[in-house]
Write a structure and sequence with these properties.
globular; TIM Barrel; 13% strand; alpha/beta; 11 helices; 44% helix; 298 residues
Length: 298
């Protein structure tokens, strides 16, 4: 059986929150319906964009259940189950499996400490043993000191470990990753601003936060690329990048805050980023609206 379980463009779903930190379940349903209608293939839930590391295990479970129920089998659901507490990560893996997820993913163990390749391989192997779902490693900029490709090559021997969500933005390393296991490895591009680069290097799809704000453009880029319309795909990436630049200038450096603000302006009641980040001010919202209109996002 192929390890390429996930393809296409998927939103790293933000978690809509009340001011008291509770999940806005109705907003989850409304947002998922919209993103699927705009052509996205699925969702990555409780990752960095979903602020999973800042939420309690119980709130993560509420968000996961709400997202899977709202999705109703229409798109693929990958649940990020990484946690500072490795035993909590195992429990979250079991919860995601029970809830009906299509796959799970996790950052390497606690970033506050350094682990060697053997320890990291043992950790992912143990996580994989908690589920029969496919598992994606999450290769981030914080893992660049590690031989991530070497670790993944070892982990591919585990039947349900399938590859990685790769946000390292090193496309030679991504190309090398895609050569492992005779090419039978699931590679998902991370950086939104270079989706086309990831696809050129063999990525099977992409996951990102700004996909929530510009879903149709990302869907059109992916379809154009797969149809061999490279010039068209590059033009769409350029349009997307103007939107990304606008979002990066907003929200006081907190991308989740700016994504939530943009979605709120699009009609989705997202609430604040996790405390203490809070809401954008009225003046900031006015500025965000003007900037996003300027680049065609609103």
């Amino acid at each position: 059986m192929s390890k390429v379980c996930f393809e296409g463009v998927m939103a790293a779903l933000p978690t809509p929150l009340e001011d008291n930190g509770e999940i806005k379940v109705k907003t989850v349903k409304k947002l998922i319906d919209h993103l699927l209608d705009e052509g996205l293939y699925g969702f990555y839930v409780t990752g960095a964009t979903g602020e999973g590391a800042c939420l309690s295990a119980k709130k993560r479970e509420v968000m996961v259940n709400a997202a899977i129920e709202a999705n109703a089998g229409r798109g693929k659901m990958i649940i990020h189950i990484g946690s500072i507490d490795p035993y909590e990560a195992m429990e979250l893996t079991r919860q995601a499996t029970k809830a009906g997820a299509d796959g799970v993913s996790a950052v390497p163990p606690n970033y506050m400490f350094e682990y060697d390749a053997d320890e990291i391989c043992e950790y992912y192997t143990r996580l994989a043993g908690e589920t029969d779902l496919p598992l994606l490693m999450y290769a981030t900029q914080k893992t660049v000191a590690l031989d991530v490709n070497g670790i993944i090559e070892r982990l591919l021997a585990v039947p349900n470990i399938i590859g990685a969500k790769d946000t390292r933005a090193n496309y030679y390393k991504m190309w090398q990753l895609k050569q492992l296991n005779g090419g039978d490895v699931n590679v998902i591009n991370g950086p939104d601003e270079t989706l086309i680069c990831g696809l050129m290097m063999g990525a099977d799809g992409g996951i990102g936060s700004t996909y929530n704000v510009m879903p149709r453009w990302f869907s059109e880029l992916y379809k154009a690329f797969r149809a061999g319309k490279i010039d068209e795909a590059r033009e769409i990436q350029t349009k997307i990048n103007y939107g990304i630049e606008a979002l990066l200038r907003l929200g006081r450096g907190n991308t989740v805050r700016s994504v939530k603000a943009a979605l709120t302006l699009q009609g989705y009641d997202m609430g604040p980023a996790v405390y203490p980040a809070g809401h954008c001010s009225a003046d900031e919202m006015k500025y965000i609206k003007k900037e996003l209109k300027k680049v065609g996002v609103l």
